[in-house]
Each structure stands twice: as C-alpha cells, then as structure tokens.
Amino acid sequence: MELTGRRTEVDRITTLAVLPRESALVVVGDPGSGRTSVLDAASSRVSLPVVRIGVNGSESRWPLGGVTTLFSALDDPRAAAHVSRILGTVRDADPAQVIVVAHELLDTLRTLQMAPTLVLIDDLDRMDAASQTLIAFLAGRLVGTSLRVVATVATVPSDSPLAALPSLRLAPLHPDEALLLARELAADDANDGVLAVIAEQTAGNPGVLREQLGMLRREQLLGTEPLVLPLRPTPTTDRIVAPVVAAVPGRDLDVLARLALVLVTKAGGPEWDRDVVEDLASVGLVTVRGQSISVRSPLVRSFLHWRMTARDRRAAHAELAASAAAHDPRAASWHRSFTDDLPDAVALLHAALAYAADGDAAAAVTLTERALHVGTRSEREHLALLAVAEVLLAHRLLGYAARYLAAIAPFRSRLDDVRRLRLHYSVQYLSGEAVEADELLVPADATDAAEAEAVTGLLAMVASFRAEAWELEHARDLLQRAEPFESALPPHTAQILQAARQMVAAVDGHLPPDRDLHDGLATTSLLALSDPTLLLLAHALSLSERYRSARRVFALVLARSSHTAPVWVEAARYLTAENEVRSGNFRLALRAIDAWETGSSVVERLREPSRAIAIAWRHFLEGRPVATLEVLDRCLALRSTSGLWGATAKLHAFRGRVLLFEGRAEEAAAALETADAIGRTVRNPTVLRHLGDLIEAYVRLGRTDDARTTTARLAADHRAHPSRWGALVLARSLALVSDDTTREAARHRALELFEPTDSQFERARTLAALASTGTGPDRARLGAASAAAYEAAGLRRPLAAPQGVAAMPPAVGSSALRQSQFDSTPSPTTPRSAPDGTPVLTLLTAEEQAVVQKVTEGYRNREIASSLYMSQRTVELRLTQIYRKVGARSRSHLVALLG
What we know:
The chain is mainly α. 61% of the residues lie in helices and 4% in strands. The chain is built from 47 helices and eight strands. The chain has a five-stranded parallel β-sheet, sandwiched between helices. The protein has a three-stranded antiparallel β-sheet with strand order 6-8-7. A hairpin with a 2-residue loop joins strand 7 and strand 8. Helix 39 runs parallel beside helix 41. The protein is flat. It starts with 6 loop residues before the first helix and ends with a helix.
C-alpha cells in the first residue's frame, strides 16, 4: 500500500542521500506515527544501496552490540575486520573509552572509502546506551565519507547524544490525509462520514486509526449505528498518553480528568481553577480560545474519559450539568444526557447546531452522535438533525452532512420534505453523483404558496444540476414544470429560476448577450442577486466564452465572502480557476488555483471530478504530466456508474489532451474517443472541447479518413452553435486534414483568424500543429512562434511533443541551473564515491528551480516575483517548499547545500 501523507518527510530523507554536506538525520515520532513506514518509503525512492537495521530490544544489555550489528550489516569485509579489531580491545573497557573507539571507527570509514550507502536504523533508542553514543558521534561526522545515516526514535531527551543531530519530527497527519488513510484501510462500503469522525478522533496517528477501525462493529462502519464518543482507547493510545498523564501533578490531573468529560466549556465557570487551566494550557494539554476551554488531544480525552468508572463519570456529569446550567446551556445539555433517565436528544441537536454554526465541527459531531445514540428517532428529532446537516453542508463538510442525512426519514410535511430533498440532491451533486430527483414527479399544491415556492426553488436547483451534467432535455422539463408557479414567486426564488434557464441556454450555446442580462450586468443589479444566482450566472457566462464578464461576477461573490457560506466561497474559487483555464490565461489560472487550494479540502478535491481537474491543470501547466495523469487516473478509478457522466467525459478528454502532448497519440485517441462516446449527445463543441484534440491525434496516427469525418462533425456542430473557440479550432483542423491543393490556403486561414485577444494557448496549439506538417524554413519559423506563444500563455516549462512537433523552449534559466550554478566539483577531501548535490535538483519542480536560480543570483523575493510573473506570496510559498525538500534552514544555507 502506498504511504499516505508523509511526502515532505520522505523527500527530506531522499534529499539527505544526495546532499554533499549533510550526513545524518534523526526521525522522531510517537508510537503509531509511522516511523517504519517512512523508512520503507524512503528506501524505495533512493538510488543508493540501502542497509536496513531493525533493533532488537533484548540486545540493549550487551555493550556496543548495536555498533557490531551496524558494521556487520554494511557487508564490507574490510570494515568488519577493522571494527572487530577495534571493539575487541575495548569491549570490556571503561565506558569513557567509547569516544576513543568512535574516533578510530571514523578514521577507518574515511580510509576505506566504501561504496555510497544509506543506513536506515529503526528504533535506535532501543539500542544499548554505548552504541547510541558512538553512533550519534559518528553520524554527526560522516561528511567526507560515503555513508548517510537516518535513525528513528520515539523521543530525544535533551541530554541524549542524539540531541546534537539534525532531527525531523513526524507530526500528526493532516485531517485530510488521515481521512484518505481511513478510506484505504476500511472496506469499500464504509460510510465516509463515519471515517471522517474516526480520522478526527484519532488525532492523525496512523497506528491508532488502524486499531480503531478494527474495533468498530460492521453496523457502525456502515453508519447504521451511531458511534460512542469519545472512542475507547487502543493499546497505542495508552502507550502515547500514559507517560504524558503520569507527568501531570495530582491537582492538575483532577481538573484535566473533569475537562475530559466536556466538549467545550466556558473558562469562567466556577468549577474550573483558572491557574490550573493556565498550567495545563502552557504544556499543551488544553486549548483556551477566548472564554472557551477544551482538552486539546482527543487521545488524551479518550484515555482519561474511559479510565474513570461509570459511576464516577455519572457523578461528575451530574455536578458539571448543575454548574453549567446557568452559564453554558450547550455543555449542560451534553452532561444531562448522561444523567437523565430520558435524555433530550433535541436539546443535544440544538447544541450541535450552535457549535456547527460557530465552526466547531468536532463538538457538533460528538453531540450529534450522542443524540443518535440516546434518541427515539422521532420526526421532531429528525427535523433538528436536518438543521444540523444543512449547516454542516454549508461549511463544506460533505461527509458529515451525508452521514446524518442518511439517518433522516421522509417527512409528512411537504415543506419539510422539500428541505430534506434539497439537502439530499445537493449532497449527491457535490459528491459527483447523478441527481435523479424522482421525488419531484409528485406535483406541488398550487394553492399553497409556501409549498409552491419551495418546490419551484427545488426544481430550479435540480435543473441547474442537470444542465451542468449536459442533460438539457431533463433540465428543460423541470423548468417547464416550474412555470405555473412563476408569477407568484418571491424575488429570491425567481432569480434562481432565471439563472437555471441561463445555465441551460449557455450549455446549449445560446445565452443572450450581456446587454440583455440584468440591465447589462450592472453592478447595482448584480449586487441584488443571491450568491447561488451569481455563481450560476458567472458559470453560464464562462461557458459562453465571456470570460471577462464571468471574472467580474465571480469577483463580486468573493468580495462579500465574509457574509457568504463557505460552500459558495469555495465554489466561486474553483469556478474562477476553471474560467481562467477556459480563457487560456494560465497565469491567472494558477493564481486562482492557488487561492482555491489554500481553503479547500485535499480529500474532496481528489474525489470530486471538477476539483480533480483543477489540480490536474496545475500539474499540467507546471510541466508535470506524470502527476497530471496520476490525479486523473485516480479520480477515474473512484468514478462509479452513479457518477455524472458529463464529469467522466471531461476527465477522459483532459487525459487525452495530456497524452497527446506527451506524444502518446494511440493512447490519446483512445481516451478522446471514450470522451466522445460519453458526450456525443452534447452538440455544443465548446462544452467538452475534445474534437480538436481527437482530430490532431488521428492526423498523427495517419488515420486521415477518421480525422476528416470528425472535422465534418465539428463543422456541423459549429454552424449550429457558433463560438470563437470553435472557429479557431475548426480552422486548425481544416488545415490539418486539407489536401495538397487546399493546404496552403487552409494554413494561412488558420493563422490569420487569430486576434490579439484570442487564447495564446490555442494560438500555440495551431502554430505547433502547422509546424508538424510544414517543411524547411516555414517549419522552423512556426515552431519558434509556437514556443513563444506557449510561454505567453503562461506555461512555465516545456511540454513534451512527438518527433516533428514544436514544443516549448526550456524554462528560463533551467539549463543554467544544471550547467553553472549547481555544477558540483568534489573537494580534494571528498572521496569520488561520495554523492554530490546535483541530483537534489531533480526533487524540485521547474518553477522551484527557477526560484532557486534567482536566489543564487542574489534576487530578493519582490524581484523574483516580478521576473517570474508571480505574486510575492507565491515566491515565499515556493521557497518554503524548497527549504523542506532539501533540508535548508535559510537562504544562505540553501545556496551552501547546493553550491
């Protein structure tokens, strides 16, 4: 199984293997943090021979036994002989002689000039003390030898000899990565919301996560039974928390144990000693935010909660409920659920709703699970649960919303059930599934104004979903069923209905001109629209190739983001990125993807096709085709028959384009034909934008008849749905399939059609395609022009092309990076077998290499940003990534490491 997360840590180890001036690294991590897995991943990625040493704790009673194991594992008879001789003279000597032994061993290593080797020692802290001291001494002085040492330990005491070595702390997995790991470990039919809860409750510790999944009953894993929170501690939890708790003084431990019984409580409560709370906060055991306090780690909370007897817990909950009743009703409802004979599940859900609205998802989920555990599943409880799920979805917590939605039965009231259906369809759509909406076949009561409004809004929402999925006939049918109620609709619902119609028109290629939309897209008119309406309008404008207008409308949504639900803010960000990609303005596209990535979930990006495509575009624009294909293939692997077929077609179309740029025409044609088969019913060629690529793939493969047939299709579709993109790509395609008598005129037509405002990317595509079929000076001229156009489009490094097809020139300064600044000339004291710094550059992207180039030339961040056409913030982020990859501590250290 591929290692989830830990990419930075593995990169640091693999970088160490090739750095000329670093020799050792200590990897520190709690039990279960994955120290061994990190070493496994690193060993498979380095080009040097690797020696793995697993420490047997029983050997710790033999002085210098660890050193003997180390040198025996090197498999060099010369080293073994020298070490046996040296250790044979001092094994029974005073421990003070260890340093003398270390110097002799170091001299031996420098004299022998052994083959370059990476030594990985797992659990070094389990070796005997003398071996730890000796290996620590050697590891810090291996520069000039061919050995690199990486050792893992649980802790590094300040007085340990290992404390002087560079160290790398294995932090808890990010919640996104923990959820990815949970998905990999659990059964395929496990409930995603349950996995999200487990990932959060295990504090990013892979070992604890694995144990907790093994302890769940199948019904809990499927989501049909609630979870009992906090989770019961596992053996790894005990190993992590027991030493921490043992170090807490008695009075402080009593307060901490009582805090483990609450979710979040008011710091000003009379039951909490403020001095003790401050002491606990200072050592990182509790978190204080404003007037609220809570136990920081769910593992500590789990350990202390279940260490108490049931009787003691109930008595403590009774005291805390009485104390919190006056000043913290949310906490009081939680405590009373453990003491009342008939717990109030609705009160728990109201408290969960308040926490969810405040952004405290962990507290909201814990209260909701408790409500499901003690509730009676009445309709009143389901209404309260629906409100919680709605807020969770608004905060972009899709897994949690889906989990609790599944527990809600249909309501007797049509108004309430419309709310449930709205949430249900939204979750389906955001999960990348087809929205069938069979429940909407039941007609609304036209005499009930509230019901008619609610059903009309739902019809418009689902119609927009269907339009986005290219199911235009279904979308039109839903909009037609909303017409009888249109005259009595309030403004908000009428706006949504109008925006859904505009979306259908845009996908069909017939959106009215800007002057006919909201008073010519006047700012005052746009500001009166709701966020969903603005997003639908902007997306329709983007699909209709009105990129500037779309950019402006998206900006209005983001400008009022402080008053906008997070789900709409994120939608605006990724749709903005899609708009810039469609426009061919790749510099703005990369900035938009940057902005979206900073506030979006990694996990949801990879599971939702639209977000996966955005991430794939980033890799593509930065010249990483392998990473692009990995993202697309992973997303396609997660697709199911219930998925939106339009989104699946986009994935295949983009995959085909990347393969085409890589010169893999046969595979590109297969992927593009798949996209074509899926999206054949959509006659607007600007929606999928795959036919131009398919024609070019056919031409490269010599399938001229197929290319001409597809070009005829493109021409017919373009006549029915004219667009600027269609005109440019059709002209290019006609030039590629033309015969000898019309070729020259077709080529001139394809080039002359471009205007300064057209996409530089499409211009580059046309120039490159014509260069591939040209001859002599004309071929070279078009190739150079295509390279300049690719650079103008914002592609930051060359894209591979098949033989005879023009590609972009190397990224600025990349050749200089390889040939000048980072030429590594060994010093007289460095053996020829020692690694140099040149391979470090292979760990950096082209953009990171360009940044390093400017750093070595003495550029400041602002100057780098200006010269590379990026923001200063982006430069700072890239430098941070570079430092992590190569293990640099500063600018000067970076230059020294690679110098």
